[in-house]
């Protein structure tokens, strides 16, 4: 779906109009109420215009939000709205993109959206467990800095503590790492994607359900002012030898029955800001030293280092999750 947006600045007021938004859906929970749409449409404007002022009613008074009644951004009762977050979270990037030419120093490129994996079932004693592993992707870059990695924007939540969820649910998180070469290239780089891998703790044969719904599968959302897209999201199941067993596509409720099955979630990387060829040598050297970008990735995304020996072309990354 596409969410068209028109912003009109008139004196000390701004109107945000979503005319042409897709019609509401009969099921799936993606519909957004107008007040939720208003919240996600005005929040980025407040951040741009009054970043040093604590949020209050006056910060939002200059803004008016319109959306067609009966659309996915202004649904009517009794439309399902349980996962309206997946619609609302895409509004801010649209607004930043619309204003990128008018206010280049105040906008932010697309951020890899957060995802929660819920695990639930019953243990051998018959006790029911249900818990959520919430993780963030890479923040979009801006005119002054690279995006942060593992950030749960635009929510106010934090990454779930691994120690906490492992104490409350019978799982083992075997990996939680940034993905090399996953931040969108630019004068300023997007934040890195995050890879999370988990499995059952006990090989008891009991089923465990895991919700694997990566946000942004297959999306290549360009950065701002020449910045490149970050790595797309993905979810899949593999065995202990990192061999693919099943791809979850745009989302699936996975059933695990043994400790040999590992669920892997890739959270998207942030998009870049500015021409990648303008990235400073010191920034590229720091990324290489930290393992955030590989030598092959640096040559591919930022051009070859004239002081470095020639490198062969990098082989395609079939799963696009190569990293540390």
Protein described:
- By secondary structure, the protein is an alpha+beta fold.
- The protein is built from 7 helices and 12 strands.
- The protein has a 5-stranded antiparallel β-sheet with strand order 6-7-12-9-10, covered by helices on one side. Strands 5-4-8-11 form a 4-stranded antiparallel β-sheet, with helices on one face.
- A hairpin with a 2-residue loop joins β1 (6-10) and β2.
- The longest helix has 16 residues, at 34-49.
- The model is unreliable at 306-324 (pLDDT under 50).
- Shape summary: globular
Instruction: Enumerate the strands of the largest sheet in spatial order, edge to edge or round the barrel.
Output: 6-7-12-9-10
Order of helices and strands: EEHHEHHEEHEEEEEEEHH
Number of domains: 2
Strand content: 15-25%
Mean pLDDT: 91
Specify the biggest β-sheet. 5 strands, antiparallel
Helix percentage range:
10-25%
Number of helices: 7
The structure class reads: alpha+beta
**CA-atom Rg in angstroms:** 21 Å
Number of strands: 12
Instruction: Extract low-pLDDT stretches.
Output: 306-324
Map the helices and strands:
Layout: E1 6-10, E2 13-17, H1 34-49, H2 57-60, E3 63-66, H3 85-88, H4 91-98, E4 115-122, E5 128-135, H5 162-168, E6 171-178, E7 194-200, E8 208-212, E9 234-238, E10 244-247, E11 252-256, E12 262-267, H6 281-290, H7 295-302
Helix pairs in contact: 1-4
